[in-house]
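COMPLEX REQUEST
Ligand: magnesium ion
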Amino acid sequence: MLRVEGLGIRFGGLHAVKDVTATIPAGQITAIIGPNGAGKSTFFNLISGFYQPTTGRIIFQGQDITRLKTHEVVASGMARTFQTTTIYKELSVLENAMIGHRVRTRAGLLDALLRTGRERRDEQESRDAAMTALTRVGIAAHAARPAGAMTQEGQKRVGIAMALASNPKLLLLDEPAAGMNPEETVSLMALIRELVAGGLTVILVEHKMSLVMSLADHILVLHHGQKISEGVPAQVSRDPAVIEAYLGSHAHGGQMGQATAASAGETPHA
Ligand SMILES: Nc1ncnc2c1ncn2[C@@H]1O[C@H](COP(=O)(O)OP(=O)(O)O)[C@@H](O)[C@H]1O
Ligand SMILES: [Mg+2]
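STATUS: Structure written out below.
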């Protein structure tokens, strides 16, 4: 589905992502994990065309997309959500999904907002794509509501619908459970599983280790921009390099410790 070879980007002297080679399997959920600042969001920005890599190649469905612009990447079948919610709260849920369709498949936001002649002709197509996306994420009944009136989890679904409106084969989710309570997290996990059961491939970045361990089929671990481990959850959670990376990180050491212990059936260490 997706292969990156020697992928890297430097910001000044900082290698935010360095020499990452990996293959993301189709029809599965792949999680990108790693301590804060590991390069996870940057990795997403590279594969979705928001950043141009300094080194390496990105192959998506057999096509070299390394130099494509973001809307060309979208046209090739990949869509993403952002770490911070980027929905338009005063617009309706349906209008948000329509903007998702237009911005991602046409030239840009300005066109979408100004409703040029071409945009008007495309309105019905956008509306249909948007309604299909809302149905897929289970919020079609809320189409006419202002997006800002939805719950936090509902707003996440709007964000996912915006990405799905371009009908991608691969969906990238940056911290989908951020700001969610446990109940909402469970509900979002179920949604992600449903989407994958329907044929979508998902790559997600997530800090909540317990979530990743039970949700992902395949895990790729970044640390200081480099891939330090890859495999199924049980393998990765036992990998000494991963445990060390997380324990070395004050912010997330505890979370990884719990996840490791839970998946290994052990008592959490002190
Ligand atoms: N546009 C940028 N310019 C300069 N440095 C950046 C930029 N984006 C990310 N970085 C740096 O790259 C590193 C990785 O960041 P990021 O990918 O956001 O990490 P993560 O998502 O894993 O927490 C961090 O040190 C961050 O400060
Ligand atoms: Mg990030």
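REMARKS: Residues 11, 14, 16, 34, 36-42 surround adenosine-5'-diphosphate (ligand 1) (CB under 6 Å). The first strand starts at residue 2 and ends at 11.
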